[in-house]
Specification:
Layout lengths: L2 E8 L6 H14 L4 E8 L6 H11 L3 E6 L5 H11 L4 E4 L10 H11 L4 E6 L7 H17 L8 E8 H8 L8 H7 L4 E6 L13 H15 L2 H22 L4 H30 L6 E4 L5
Parallel strand pairs: 1-2, 1-4, 2-3, 5-7
Antiparallel strand pairs: 3-8, 4-6, 5-6
Helix pairs in contact: 5-8, 9-10
The structure holds uridine-5'-diphosphate and magnesium ion (MG).
Length: 297
Amino acid sequence: METISIIVPCFNEQETISIFFDEMNKVMNKLQNYQFEIVFIDDGSNDNTLNYMKTFHQKDNRYHYLSFSRNFGKEAAIYAGLQYVKGDYVAIMDVDLQDPPVLLVDMLQILKTENIDNVATKRCTRTGETFIRSFLSRNFYRVINKISSVQIVNGARDFRLMKRAMVDAILMMSERNRFSKGLFEWVGFKTYWIEFENVQRSGGQTKWSLKQLFFYSLEGISSFSVQPLFLSFILCGLLFLVFVVCIFYSFSLSLFFLFNALQLLCIGILGYYLSKMYIEIKHRPIYIVKERSEDHE
Ligand code: UDP
Ligand code: MG
């Protein structure tokens, strides 16, 4: 029998995790010809999330959990899950039902009949999302696709079902600055996209503030593009030329300030990449597991 592994990152999800458990059980009943391995990653929750995970593991040994020593972020949770699971097919899914588990049935069907390596999902609507969030994410995709080596589909979710070979390829990339949407594209393989309408959270609140999303998008750009570095190089060259011309003509104070600001911007871009290198070079672990379901067997 083939095994389907499902990775579910959770951070303070006591309001949603039981709803997920019920929904996932229904989906597993529909796919009786497969074995399942559901792995909850507790990303340093400080509510009752971990206790729920323990209860589900006791009730049903298809449910497992890993609990981090603190909050390492969803990307670290995905990586930990990918390292842990053993399935022939592997899915990543949010716990709040915004990645509807029932779609797995169709995704599996497509994966088995078409000559492809993974089925990915994207939202065709952004209803329920604030205007500023939609505006920023639309423009993020526009920028990253213009300047980076990978093309990221607008509205793409992390929710996808992959064959083992693709999972192994992603695991070969052990970088600290992780941006999964880019990594999925970078490894290649054949992808089939399915679309679905945006779904509201089953409970609780989003864990991403606008500030976090902003830094996450910078992470995406710096992980897959060095064009900002070239841009700063070109800007500095242009500045120098203008400066030389200015010496011969009138020397305006405001222009001087503008140049200074642009120079600082270039140093900032350089510094940002340097800080990313600094993190990589230290080779710290991407996550630390405090306890896991197997510890108690
Ligand atoms: N999540 C996580 N660690 C974090 C933030 C989020 O594991 O630091 C999980 C969260 O529990 C959920 C998924 O990642 O299962 C998506 O988070 P959320 O629903 O808050 O994001 P949104 O859907 O609003 O983009
Ligand atoms: Mg969500």
